[in-house]
Amino acid sequence: MIIGIDVSSIMYGTGVGNYTLNLVANLLKIDKTNQYKLFFSSLRLPLPLEIKKFSAYPNVKIYTFKLPPLALDFLWNRLHILPIEFFIGKCDIFHTSDWTQPPTLKAKTLTTIHDLVPFLYPHWSHPKNIATHNRKMKWAIKQCSKFICVSQSTQKDLQQVFPQINPQQITVIYEAAEKKYADFLKLSTAVQNQKKNKIKNLYDLDKYVLVQGTREPRKNLLNLSLAFEKFIKLHPKSKIVLAITGKSGWGQEVESKSGHIKILGYIPEKDIVALHASAILLATPSFYEGFGLPLVKSLCVGVPVLVSQNTSLSEIAGNAAILVNPNSTDSIYLALEKILTNSHLYQKLSHNAIIQSKKFSWLTTAKQTLNIYKIIYNDLI
């Protein structure tokens, strides 16, 4: 079987890129039989080192092109010309990106649905992004043999927005956190503390509630910050801060009246594991998430989580979370009060977090995805 995968998203370092990178890396660990053709295209950016490393596998060939995303959107989503085989040669299966849907000569296609934000909440998306996703999905519905959804919540959303898709075509396959998160707890207590202290000193932190992700309206940072300020007002001696990490997206930035909110911005990947492990809580009261990868990272290192009750987050967190109504500042405040002042509850949630994290593994993701490839291929022959 010859399997093609669009790996262009890896260069952006986004959630979709992280998914693609870990999926391919783990597919290559478990599959030495099938051939893999990796498609990468960028006008200005060079082939990322993470993708170059895949060329060490004898069953991998990488195809690079200097076409920008707008050109591929025009060729594949608008005109729907130039089959993927024109670029990478013969393939049996092609796993498309979340951005484009190329035509094929004979290859069967599948795509992964990470979320339905452009369709369910267009006010949180740029009009150009909405138009691109509409064009992509028009062709995906016609072409794709299978749709992979990263959560049951996303599957439900997909069926709501596109009821014409046969439910038998949809499979839920969870994402995961890299092995290095679970491995952190295997270190000696002394080494763990050393790494935690290094991170706290580097970012001038002591006790903190962590927020990770692109800063944009759907992350609900405004309500979270108001709830946290209320907590600090009622606990004036508390030294806990709200540490907000991630790239700046768009929308109103939060402000701190008490000085207990820190905007740390982008954090290098080398610091992320210890940053999660050093936090006393991860807060993700988002209005909408397709999966919630930072959540799984915190679960792996035994950190309890505060999440919204009406998204995929409650599905992923299980009984390791305090659930909140994202529209209610009081609900978020009461959850903070409950988890930050009740040591018995905190220890219970921390214990549950480690148990819940074992449900997610990139190797499992790869095995289940490879099985989907085989199902499509068997139907092909």
TrEMBL record:
<dbReference type="InterPro" id="IPR028098">
    <property type="entry name" value="Glyco_trans_4-like_N"/>
</dbReference>
<dbReference type="Pfam" id="PF13439">
    <property type="entry name" value="Glyco_transf_4"/>
</dbReference>
<keyword id="KW-0808">Transferase</keyword>
<dbReference type="GO" id="GO:0009103">
    <property type="term" value="P:lipopolysaccharide biosynthetic process"/>
</dbReference>
<dbReference type="GO" id="GO:0016757">
    <property type="term" value="F:glycosyltransferase activity"/>
</dbReference>
<feature type="domain" description="Glycosyltransferase subfamily 4-like N-terminal">
    <location>
        <begin position="15"/>
        <end position="174"/>
    </location>
</feature>
<protein>
    <recommendedName>
        <fullName>Glycosyl transferase family 1 domain-containing protein</fullName>
    </recommendedName>
</protein>
<feature type="domain" description="Glycosyl transferase family 1">
    <location>
        <begin position="194"/>
        <end position="353"/>
    </location>
</feature>
<dbReference type="Pfam" id="PF00534">
    <property type="entry name" value="Glycos_transf_1"/>
</dbReference>
<dbReference type="InterPro" id="IPR001296">
    <property type="entry name" value="Glyco_trans_1"/>
</dbReference>
